[in-house]
Write a structure and sequence with these properties.
The chain is mainly beta. It has one domain (8-329): YVTN repeat-like/Quinoprotein amine dehydrogenase (Methylamine Dehydrogenase, Chain H, 7 Propeller). 4% of the residues lie in helices and 48% in strands. The protein is built from one helix and 34 strands. The strands form seven sheets. Strands 3, 4, 5, 6 and 7 form a five-stranded antiparallel β-sheet that branches.
């Protein structure tokens, strides 16, 4: 992860490690599992590859795919069987310094944003092997999302300040890259597929793209300092944006594309956010002090007690039934 000099989230991790005097023993390269019924850690550590940065679950919840950014020549993706909570012996090789992953709604394919290759890798989940030649996108792709109908993939290129659009039928870019703000770092798509929300870390804004035209749909929405992650509620009414630099969560009303409420104060350096399938809670990782915070979306307030998870929780994903949260610890 330290090799990704231009990446905003990596800089946050590196800074946190330097301030804490972190050594190799503190880099966990593991996944922990939280039981949402009790909000307690149910599985302490599932070992994965070096420098894990992201995680995605298949639509049936049977497997978790973990992106490992480390590796001398390329990154990899570890495969966890969620029934046993064990990782397969062999990881899937992808491009250089991969950052995030998205799985198609039918669960058949996975798309990985390869920051160091300026490309997207695609593999079949049936065979866990690369399906096509890497797809060239903009510079420094870090975030990726698939439309609800599975027809397109949107990729945020942090060094280009653009979003690339891939047609999943041909696995080729469909249009000229869409200009957004500076250092786009996170991306989410509305449940009805009509809009794409892009968090721009350098501008402290969220860009909104109309998927019918692939053009800007609204004026950029102001957020807190350093928006690093974004999630949209299952009913599409709100977008929650985790701001890494001021320890807040901005709440956006997607009907008006304006802030819906006062920002929610959370722990220092939030890096990822996910909402339960029922939409009642949002779970969020914070690098310091290594916790997962829980927000009640009915009141937009934090649940009283945070969940201690250990050093450098960087990403998370919630199972389709909402029973478990898988947390990546770098």
């Amino acid at each position: 992860m330290l090799l990704l000099a231009g990446l905003a989230i990596t800089a946050v991790v590196a800074e946190a490690g330097a301030q804490k005097g972190a050594g190799a023993s503190q880099i966990r390269s593991a996944v922990s599992v939280i039981d949402t019924a009790t909000n307690r850690v149910a599985v302490k550590a599932i070992k994965v590859g070096p420098f894990p940065s992201a995680i995605a679950l298949t639509p049936d919840g049977s497997r978790a795919y973990v992106v490992n950014s480390g590796g001398a020549k390329h990154g990899s993706v570890s495969v966890i069987d969620t029934a046993t909570n064990r990782a397969a012996a062999k990881a899937i090789p992808v491009g250089r310094y991969p950052e995030q992953i998205a799985i198609t709604p039918d669960g058949s394919s996975a798309y990985v944003a390869d920051f160091g290759s300026n490309a997207v890798s695609v593999f079949s989940t049936a065979t866990n092997s690369l399906a096509v030649k890497a797809i060239r996108v903009g510079r420094g792709p870090v975030a990726i999302a698939v439309t609800p109908d599975g027809s397109r993939v949107y990729v945020a290129n942090t060094l280009s300040g653009t979003v690339s659009v891939i047609d999943t039928a041909t696995d080729e870019p469909t249009t000229k890259a869409i200009r957004v703000g500076r250092r786009p770092t996170a991306i989410a798509i509305a449940p009805n597929g009509s809009r794409v929300y892009v968090a721009n870390m350098r501008d402290d804004t969220v860009s909104v793209i109309d998927t019918a035209t692939n053009q800007s749909a609204a004026k950029p929405i102001k957020t807190g300092d350093g928006p690093a992650a974004i999630a949209i509620s299952p009913n599409g009414a709100r977008a929650y944006v985790a701001n890494a630099h001021d320890g807040t969560v901005s709440v956006i009303d997607t009907a008006t594309d304006r802030p819906a409420a006062k920002a929610i104060k959370v722990a220092h350096r939030p890096t990822a956010i996910a909402i339960t399938p029922h939409g009642d809670r949002a779970y969020m990782t914070s690098l310091e002090p290594g916790i997962v915070s829980v927000i009640d979306t009915a009141t937009d307030k934090r649940v009283a007690k945070a969940i201690g998870i250990g050093p450098f929780p960087l990403a998370l994903a919630i199972t389709p039934d909402g029973s478990r949260v898988y947390v990546v610890k770098n």
